[in-house]
Write a structure and sequence with these properties.
There is one protein chain. The chain is an alpha/beta fold and 271 residues long. The chain folds into 2 domains: 70 residues, Ubiquitin-like (UB roll), CATH 3.10.20; 133 residues, Cell division protein FtsQ/DivIB (Rossmann fold, 3-Layer(aba) Sandwich). The chain is built from 7 helices and 15 strands. The strands form 3 sheets. Strands 8-7-6-9-10-11-12-13-14-15 form a 10-stranded mixed beta sheet, with helices on one face. It has a 3-stranded mixed beta sheet with strand order 3-5-4. Strands 1-2 form a two-stranded antiparallel sheet. Strand 14 and strand 15 form a beta hairpin. The longest helix is centred in the N-terminal third of the chain and has 23 residues. It is elongated, with a radius of gyration of 41 Å.
């Protein structure tokens, strides 16, 4: 931009100075151009608002479309898609913004094999669904199952899971029994011994079944220590002899009572 000072002379000398500005030999754009842009923008906004008001039902229907699709984010082993469809039947078809995410999550988690459900809306009409299934670790009594947290759940067709170990105990003792099961399993499994059952009596005494045939009485105290003592003894015996063990009594302070088959020995192994 070039500024030129022009002196205007009169008969008595210099009277005034006028400053003219040029930008590339062109006069500056008038300030009114910015206001004109604002007027145009305001007119567009008003026009859009008028269109929305006149067609609000169609616009609302487009934005708030009914949720009609379910996107499954992970694979399931125990839960079928048909069961999920039934559980969600009262929710699907509602508008995107009207969809009850909390209610759908609660309904899904009522399924006995669902530990946790994650439900999310994806615009315009899709539901994202991810389920965490229960992991059955053991049976509890005749009609319930235990997960890894010692929590009870009761699905149908429990007879199909008869190979799971059977755990029993007093009312509300399932978490204690599950914790004991996990501790004992860590000791027994490396020796090739499998816990087929574990029982806690009302008096606090523990008994368990190994490999579907070896009954073990462990008493009320130091069950883990006594079990480790038995594992050491078991591994020290010849396989043809240890395979004949029928019952083990660990309730001795310094030994183990072993009962074998009719053709084998009955005695006490002293530590």
């Amino acid at each position: 931009m070039v500024s030129v000072n022009r002196a205007i002379r009169t008969g008595s000398g210099i009277h005034a100075i006028r400053r003219n500005s040029f930008a590339g030999n062109q006069p500056l754009k008038p300030k009114s151009s910015g206001k004109r842009s604002l007027y145009i923008l305001a007119a567009l906004v008003i026009g859009i608002c008028i269109v929305l008001v006149q067609n609000h039902e169609d616009v609302a229907g487009f934005i708030n479309r009914p949720v009609s699709k379910v996107r499954i984010e992970n694979q399931w082993q125990r839960v079928s898609e048909a069961e999920i469809g039934t559980l969600l039947s009262d929710f699907l078809g509602n508008g995107f913004f009207d969809f009850d995410v909390v209610g759908a999550k609660y309904e899904l988690e009522q399924h006995p094999w669902v530990l946790q459900a994650s439900v999310k809306r994806i615009w315009p009409d899709t539901l994202s669904l991810q389920l965490v299934e229960q992991v059955a670790i053991a049976r509890w009594g005749e009609s319930q199952l235990l997960n890894q947290y010692g929590e009870l759940f009761q699905p149908g067709r429990i007879k199909e899971l008869s190979s799971l170990p059977l755990l029993t105990g007093p009312v509300d003792s399932q978490k204690i029994v599950m914790q004991q099961y996990q501790k004992l399993n860590q000791i027994l499994f490396p020796a090739g011994l499998r816990l087929s059952g574990l029982s806690l009596s009302k008096r606090g005494s523990w008994e368990y079944l190994l490999n579907d045939g070896m009954q073990v009485a462990a008493g009320r105290k130091d069950v883990v220590v006594k079990t480790q003592r038995f594992v050491d003894f078991y591994q020290s015996q010849p396989p043809e002899q240890s395979s004949q063990f029928l019952s083990i009594d660990l309730r001795y302070g310094n030994g183990i009572a072993v009962k074998g088959s009719e053709t084998n020995f009955t005695g006490v192994a002293i530590r």
